[in-house]
Amino acid sequence: MSKGTLEAVKTKIESFLEVYLAGATTEVRAPKAIHDSLWGTHLFQPHEIALLNTPLLQRLRQIHQTSLAYFTFPSATHTRFEHTIGVVNQCDKLFEALRKKYSGGALFNEEDLLNVRLSALLHDCGHSAFSHASEEVYRFCDDMQYLCGSAGPYKGKNAHEILASLIVSSEQFEKFLLQLEKKYNFKCDRNLIAEIIVGKSPSRENKYLTQIINGPFDADKLDYIYRDGHFSGLPLKVDLDRLWYAVEQTFKDDDRILIVNFGGASPLEQILFCKIVLFSTIYHHHKVRAADCMLKSIVEYVRNKNIEISINDTKLTLNEATDFLWLTDDAVFAQAYLIKDRELHRLIHNLLYRRLFKRALTICKDTIKDSDKSLGYQDLQKLTQRLPESHRQLRELARQIWETAAKPCLPEEIWVDLPHFPPTHEADETFVSYPSGKSGENQGDPELRRLTSVFPAAQWVDLYVKNKWKGHVFCPPDCQAAVSVAARSVIEAEYGLQFNEWTNLLCHIE
Amino acid sequence: MEVLFPDDVLAAILNFYPGDEFPAAREPLHRGILELEKEQELLNVFVFDEDKVFPYSEELDQAFGNLETSGLLGKFNPELRIYRISQNLRDYYTARLKTKFQAQEDELKDAACKLAALIATS
Fold first, then answer.
1. Do the chains contact at B88 and A373, CB–CB below 8 Å?
2. Is B69 part of the contact surface with chain A (CB cutoff 8 Å)?
3. DSSP summary character for residue A457
4. Is there a contact between A378 and B66 if contact means CB atoms under 8 Å apart?
5. Maximum CA pair distance of chain A?
């Protein structure tokens, strides 16, 4: 993999946009108010509506925001499109709160607002079917591994953000944006938008703009915490009004960043707590993880059988990250009828009609004897790293289980699922300004303190996450008993662990 | 060639860390490992996003979390601001990692001492 990979990815993105920007119209009569059940009514400018009307963003209506969580939380049917609308709204609120404080200066001007709103609008345009569930698959594709790897141009960045940034940087997109700029008489900074989406800043001086969309308390997070909680039936609250009053900008070293004054520490802690509750209750719910694994089964089956998927006359093998741009949730389900393969039809139908995988084994501190003293537990735990090698080893382990269980289903239907910890590093990246302690004329500059040094909320949350962590072996319901016995014996032999009686109880196995 | 996981490299460095305790704050740890990564190939398993408020490696964060979850590393209550290297980590190194890193032990000792110095001066 080399620089040629980036060029190849760019070419594929151009081909994708030839279809997903084809026929996109710039005609919009006037600004439009969009009603959102969560945040209320928000006004969008004609150029923003024209972008929302493109197939590129309309496809987000066919991508569920919380992957396959709606099979477990029935009302979590909200999409990436609704989330996009919400992020623009929250970006606007955050920006206006800052503009009030710094009115009259060079900061937070109309041009900045235009650029951050467009970044919000486009930040998720690189998502594929079932959002993060498919991202867990295409992040391991060779092209993506190069892009986000240590030698790549997007070192350490998220896969879907890389694709979104490359879309914005493309020639096709530039062409469409130029038409919009001409028609609606505005000028945006396309490079800045592409950088903001992946969390880069063109200069240290304007890091605060990037942080509105991609920072420790960004508009993206504020929307998904409220939206995912609300639509899953898990009401979560953050004192946003308090946050708007408290948000400020300042220099830390040479970076101009967003901070909060000391009154804003509580809403930041609430954001952290809410995010972790979302992970433990929804995203890492065992049924949600089981459904995610069923999606992986489908992709793996397509790859193993060399099945070619055709979308808009484009042939996809799902071996490259850019192939996934063509997929939406609907497109995945449609393959059950378009491809004449009985097993693929069955795999997709099992997901569509909620015949979800069952837990054959639960791997956690509660189910393993003396986990604290067992060296094998670390050998297994390190496979939670999101690396191609962990993926390879976990698939090899699943294959051994499948063979030991006398091949009771397709090999693609057994999964050892060890979730990655939810990130909590935002708390260390957030700063709170405290008065210097002096009063009157002698008052010095406010002191900047890290949120985690004010109160160890992040440390507690980390501990909570680690104690809640659970891995599983998933399989089809009709072979649960056989796979459970096989999984237990294979993992005990491979890792020198001993499972206790809790594992069967947690999996509801007699 | 045997594949090295970020957890293996971190556990190996901590095995040679001078002392049993060190501050658990993310920024100095991530900055410290990034500094070392620039001079020691062994640490290339950690990929850093350098556009955040401080350089951040997802692999390093996960490795610390994994070592904690499996009891190789601990934190003191109630503030959880100090890491304590447990005997389990030393045992893990001897049992699982020593042969993997035999040729690089000097490099690891050097990295561990430099990391301690970087943390101390941060």
1. yes
2. yes
3. H
4. yes
5. 81
Show Cβ contacts of residue B83 under 8 Å, excluding neighbours closer than 6 positions.
B21, B22, B23, B24, B64, B73, B74, B75
Residue A40 lies in a domain: yes
- Prediction pTM value: 0.96
Cβ–Cβ gap A429/B61 under 8 Å: no
Q: Residue A43 belongs to what H/E stretch? A: strand A40-44
CA pair distance A188, B100, nearest whole angstrom: 53
Nearest CA in chain B to A152: B47
The alpha carbon of residue B32 is apart from the nearest alpha carbon of chain A, in Å, by 15
The pLDDT assigned to A435 comes to 81
Indicate the residue of A157, A374, A456 with minimum beta-carbon distance to B81: A456
Chain A residue numbers touching B5 (CB-CB < 8 A): 382, 385, 387, 389-390
- Final residue before a domain boundary, out of A157, A177, A202: A202
Domain count, chain A: 2
The token pair at A243 is 């946050």
Give Cα A375 distance to the centre of its chain.
32
Residue A459 included in any domain: no
Domain region containing A416? 357-421+469-510
Q: Which of A202, A217, A235 is the last residue of a domain?
A: A202
ipTM: 0.96
* Interface residue B26 vs chain A (CB under 8 A): yes
- Candidate from A201, A371, A382 with C-beta closest to B66: A382
* The predicted structure's pLDDT at residue A371: 72
CATH code assigned at A29:
1.10.3210.10
pLDDT at residue A263, rounded to an integer: 87
pLDDT tens profile B22-42? 999 999 999 999 999 999 999
- Decide if A421 and B70 are in contact by the 8 Å CB cutoff: no
Integer CA distances (angstroms), A317 to A6, A309, A372, A388, in order = 19, 6, 43, 18
Chain B residues lying within 8 Å of A421, measured CB to CB: 61-62, 65
Predicted local distance difference test score (pLDDT) of residue A442:
59
If chain A, 510 residues long, is cut into consecutive pieces of 10 residues, what is the mean pLDDT of each piece?
86 97 92 97 98 98 98 98 98 96 87 97 98 97 96 96 98 97 97 97 92 95 96 93 94 93 91 94 97 98 97 95 98 95 97 98 92 85 96 98 98 98 91 77 76 84 90 98 97 95 91
Cα gap A457→A453, rounded to integer Å: 9
| Tens-place pLDDT, residues A382-393 | 999 999 999 999
Q: Classify residue A442: in a domain, yes or no.
A: no
In a domain, A284, yes or no: no
CA distance B109 to chain A (A): 22
Instruction: Report the gap between the CA of A183 and the closest CA in chain B (Å).
Output: 35
Across the interface, of A198, A201, A382, the residue whose CB is closest to B5 is A382
- How far, in Å, CA of B55 to CA of A63, rounded? 32
Mutate to test the interface with A, among B2, B31, B51, B94 (most CBs of A within 10 A): B51
